[in-house]
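dude i think i finally got it to work??
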Amino acid sequence: MAPLVIETHHLSHAFRNRLVLHDLNLQVPAGSIFGFLGPNGSGKTTTIRLLLGLIRCPQNAIRLFGKDSRTHRLEILNRLGALIESPALYTHLSGRDNLEVIRLARQVDKKQIDRVLDRVQLSGDAHQKVREYSLGMRQRLGIAMALLGDPDLLILDEPTNGLDPVGIREIRELLIELSQQHGKTVFVSSHLLGEMEKIATHLAILNEGHLHFQGTMAQLQHLQSPVLSVETNDNMAAANLLQHAGYHLQESDAERLVVSISDRRQIAAINHLLLERGMSIYALQMHQQTLEDLFFTLTSHPETVENR
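look at this
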């Protein structure tokens, strides 16, 4: 088992007496791309600010590289790089000059500028003014800033937010390269499951400050269950009937119902129940729940997957 780079122990946090994080226990293995997923407002950025020491946390609630984040703060900061939302850039300076400002502050070797520019594929644009950069180029420059000092851990908050498909793909390929070829641990927050599905080795799903899932992508996929699409002559009446019989409806509208099922035998039971009540059945179709459907279920009806 890989050592843990990030550990939180019963981490909670409140703003003005309103609890926004509830008993969070994260475990991020070394060398992983760890996707930290949740809807907007779920507590992701608050967690990242706590990890970076931008918000004070209780002692021993956060351990990075096996050390308490409060008592070993400077040692830990020397081993990590971070990008929170959009990078703060001097748009009147070139990309290289922006990196020089950070290099001087961090007191690292000047040769690292060329190295990080090459890693984020900005070497050819290094002398261009940042105001002429696309949004994707600015995000890559922000990641280059985080890479100065050759950190072991990168913490990135929504790095693809607002990017077009080309920019998203560039960031995705960069993060995979940093993990697989350079041995970095990448902790990346996002609200886009589809994007994380393509790069993450491990995932945690947060909603309203509560952790609803943590594990590998394979473990998340194991939670996927079959669902049954149902079309009848009166979907609203059918929905009421199925809910009263104890079935969980993932979708319910005038066009169709989507019902969680555990096996094929429940298809026959649902068919029998609806026919017994005099309903006309137009379609019954079983298919596998998508990861997007599962993400929605975990963040809106977590109780339906707890016992799978």
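Residues 165-180 form the longest helix (16 residues).
im so relieved honestly
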